[in-house]
Amino acid sequence: MDAQGRGRADDIDPADQWVLNPDTGEYELRLTPSAPQSPIPGPRRAGSRGAGSRGAGAPGASAAKGARGAAAGPAAGRRGGAPAREQSREDAPARPVPGQRRRRGAPPEEPLPGRRGRRPEKARKSKTKKALMWTGGTMAFVLVGAGTAGYLVLKHLEGNISSTDVGSAAKNGFSKDEAFNLLIIGTDKRTGKGNEGYGDKGSVGHADTNILLHVSKDRTNATALSIPRDLIVDVPDCPTKQPDGSTKVIAGTDDVRFNTSLGQDGRDAGCTMRTVKEVTGIAPDHFMMADFNAVKTLTSAVGGVEVCLKHAVDDEDSHLKLPAGESTIEGEQALAFVRTRHSFGNHGDLDRIKVQQQFLSSLMRKMASGDTLSNPTKLYSLADAATKALTVDQGIDKVSTLKDMALELKKVPTKNITFLTVPVRDNPADGTVHKTVIVDQSQAPQVFDAINNDVSFTDVKKKEKAAKDAAAARLKGAKSAPSEVRVRILNGGAPPGSAQETLTWLQNVKGVTKSENGSNAPEKLDKTQLEYAPDQADQARELASLMGLSGSALKPGESVTNAQGLPAMTLTLGKDFKGAGISLTAPTKAPTVQGQSTADKVQCAS
Q1: What distances in angstroms separate CA 190 from CA 193, 261, 332, 385, 388, one per listed residue?
Q2: More confident residue, 439 or 133
Q3: How far, CA to CA in Å, does 24 sit from each of 98, 112, 121, 272?
Q4: Is there a contact between 239 and 248 (Cβ–Cβ < 8 Å)?
């Protein structure tokens, strides 16, 4: 008898045969009280022959042949994958696991021999605690969280994930020790069952919804920056990988909508990443992309999402029909909600973005709830739906990488996740009919600088105070006269000619006559850096004051010998260099942006 048949015979719900062991935090397949099963086997690499491939090394993967029916749920998630095979004919030592939940009306089951009983309340708390430990990524952002929520089952579903080689646009891997930027892209491509009537007919898949998620280095906060699809931008030249392995450079275009950075002329997500950097100065590290099906499947997987409306909606274009007040939506109705424009605000894309942000906040709260995290069936459905809906870059297309990202994301409280939109204004080129927008240069640069310098848009109490105090202390003390400052200037990622430009400015404007151009640095730096020897601290403080360098830019180290044979400091102009005479002091407080909100707040769309 297979696992499903055994479950029916014993009056046990087959879905309940996957049981969370509170002692290990793993879901385990339990068939009978006398035959406890081993944990879910370890991850399979894409292209492996099956769970039983040599070298898989997953402990306790063998189960009775009759268990294959139940095990096929996770294994069948792979595209075109064969059913899971037995890894070994020798079973690993079995561990006792908690008893199955029984159907309503079924007689109570005797406790396993030799195992101490638990109070139901304590067991529930243990389940939630363990689930939170592995699925905390749901707290940070819907697509990331969904892609990593059910890690214990997701290792069976790695084959669901599609990936794109975007070359140097994305990093090769994920670092747990640094701040990171993730570009979330929602396309308007009509792929998937039931999507024929959505989006633009024949669309190649433009960047319809775009959110740049920045997660701080200390994991105390995150910022989700929405980029309007109708923002007028310059799309840069973009190298793309072709099916035959060659690289084709797609020429850039000026003064076009942001959404054309994807799909148009064969552009891939790497082109959208490069466009984000061109517009904001913020370099995305990775991307995740989803189509219409993502909203439908994810909302259904969690049993619906609560939304709130200030007024009733009956939209002819999106077919959304909801009463005023709170409603629970999923599937087609959820997709209609996030696509509706003409029933909210000024009927434009900017108001739709606000509604989408409210929807995402609600979905995040639902996914982070104990009802979802402690339910193995929902976790599996969520992981299965999310991985099938996602396309990512090759730097994060492994389960282990997604797991690492999830564990970092879970550290960010929802109250410190800020949603905001790029500050924009109407495009004057449109005339009287406003169809597009342009970046508001009076407000947007401060927003971009805050994100680039890892500054929170929420009041975070613990802000690396000790590090800031130490950096400030380096700027205090005696200073040398400008004429006594000796420095060699290197270009380590700034625009070409920046070293000479800075040299001319220092000598002619600031009187730092003992400076010299050292050409290019051996490696590029993200941040401008001034290295000095201990006896050059007074010179370092003077140069920092002249150039507007922060204390964190000063690096105690060694001196170099200049052209006159004297010790000199080394100033390396990084990618953050904005031009000679422009201060590089990082902002200490983020600006307030109209319409910004946090993920913990419940709001009603209007």
Answers
A1: 9, 18, 14, 17, 15
A2: 439
A3: 11, 17, 18, 42
A4: yes
Which pTM value belongs to this model? 0.62
Q: Is-contact 397 161, C-beta < 8 A?
A: yes
Mean pLDDT of 144-154: 44
Q: How far apart are CA 12 and CA 9, in angstroms?
A: 8
Tens digit of pLDDT for each residue in 512-529?
A: 999 999 999 999 999 999
Q: How far apart are the C-alpha atoms of 17 and 1, rounded to whole Å?
A: 15
The Cα–Cα gap between 190 and 193 comes to: 9
- Lowest-confidence range among 115-129, 215-229, 266-280, 323-337? 115-129
The model's confidence at residue 600, banded by pLDDT at 50, 70 and 90, is confident
343 phi/psi in degrees, rounded to 5: -110, 0
What stretches of 234-291 show up as alpha helix (H) in DSSP? 269-280
pLDDT digits (tens, 9 = 90+) for 292-310: 788 888 888 888 999 999 9
Pair of tokens at residue 74: 């996770």
Q: What are phi and psi of 471, to 5 degrees?
A: -65, -40
- For the stretch 105-109, contacts whose Cβ atoms lie closer than 8 Å and that sit 24 or more positions apart, written own/partner, are 106/11, 106/12, 109/33
- d(Cα 554, Cα 571) in Å, to the nearest integer? 9
Chain centre to alpha carbon of residue 29: 32
Nearest to 142 by CA among 373, 397, 364: 364
Find out whether 476 and 483 touch, Cβ atoms under 8 Å. no
Return the SS3 of 66.
helix
How many helices (H) does the chain have, and how many strands (E)?
Answer: 16, 26
CB within 8 Å of 398: residues ≥ 6 apart? 158
3-state secondary structure 443-473: CHHHHHHHHHCCCCCCCCCCCCHHHHHHHHH
Higher pLDDT, 548 or 45: 548
Question: For residue 197, what are the contacts with CB-CB under 8 A and spacing of at least 6?
Answer: none
Closest CA to 381 of 96, 155, 74, 127: 74
H or E element that contains 354: helix 349-367
In terms of DSSP H, where are the helices of 136-202? 142-148, 151-154
What does the alpha-carbon distance between residue 48 and residue 84 come to, in Å, rounded to a whole number? 11
Angle between helices 331-339 and 349-367 (to 10 degrees): 140
Structure tokens at 364: 């995040």
Q: Hey, what amino acid is at 286?
A: H
Where b means 16+ CB within 10 Å and e means fewer, 440-465 reads eeebbbbbbbbbbbbbbbbebeebee
SS3 9: helix
Tokens of 505: 């400015």
What value does the CA radius of gyration of the chain take, rounded to a whole number of Å? 28
Which two three-digit tokens encode residue 582? 């422009």
Of 33 and 187, more confident:
187
Mean pLDDT for 96-110 is 44
What is the amino acid identity at position 458? T
